[in-house]
Amino acid sequence: MKVTERWYSHRMHREIALARWGHYGVPVLLFPTAGGDAEEVERNHLVGHLAPLIEDGRIKVYSCDSVAGRAMLDREGTPAHRMWLLNQFHEAVVHEVVPAIHADIRGPQAVIVAGSSIGAFNSLALICRHPHLFNAAVCMSGTYSLEALIGGPATEDLYFASPLHFLPGLEGPLLEELQRRFVILATGTGEWEDIGESWAVAHVLGSKQVPNRVDDWGPHYPHDWHTWWQMLPVYLDELVP
Known about the structure:
The chain is α/β, with parallel strands linked by helices. It has helices at residues 40-43, 46-49, 51-55, 67-74, 79-104, 118-129, 147-150, 156-161, 163-166, 172-178, 195-207, 225-239; strands spanning 2-9, 14-21, 26-31, 59-64, 111-116, 134-140, 182-187, 212-216. An eight-stranded mixed sheet has the order 1-2-4-3-5-6-7-8, with helices on both faces. The mean pLDDT is 97.
């Protein structure tokens, strides 16, 4: 069963959609690739590969539009505008998408975040920025350094949105809570993959004593949906009782 809702986000000054699949289970929020909408994960059969977990009531899957990623691909506005929108997208997830998930499951519950490519970046950023809302992140084939994609040097918005920028200086209660979370960094080494990005993130997480693991799936796994079909069910089966 799929249900899609849409609303106007005053934080981003545009609409955002949230789709969901399943009846009950641990909430899993999937972030699309760079320009994807809320239903991209279904059209590319990722939801279908999660069907056994959904049908067994172990997970309930959600996905929202990749608003900031679409702006990056379209070169919308200036680089500073695109960095602002990325930060606002994260704010919209925290203050709009997650409350909608909690309303749907009739109460607050920690969410697993997952995604590939830019979706991996968003998963990592959200768990690092708001570990009180998310208890694990599955980051597949991640792109974690966004300056080249955005088209300009980092502004304050990108600094606060990007774990590679803000994690080295993170201290205090937020870091202590993040140290009780778990980040999976999964990647192949096939075509269009760059495992170096995952190792760079792992180094920063490890230096702050945040539990994480880099999984190298090898040269037969390219940066493609076929790779993520195989990865995500394995990791969710590991994380969900």
